[in-house]
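ok trying this again, last paste got cut off
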Amino acid sequence: MDRITLKSSMELDGIEAMKQCFISNLGVAILLNFVVQKELGQQLVALPCGIDGQTIDICYSYHQNKGITEPMKLMMQLLSQKLHVSTT
């Protein structure tokens, strides 16, 4: 197996920012298919990576004393619908 070494990295605040960076050819990432479904085949290309069909564990959390924003609610709904997880 080939190893990938990062020469530099960037931290982004949101998926849309990430997608715009990838569309601008500024890097690569492993993202869930439903996150980039609209852009696949037009602006983004899926590369074979050998992890198709494998199960991955996902965990999300939020601060109990802060409000849940509309984007957070949407993310929780998408996780619940697409990945069959509990949002409790």
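PB: full thing came through this time. The mean pLDDT is 77.
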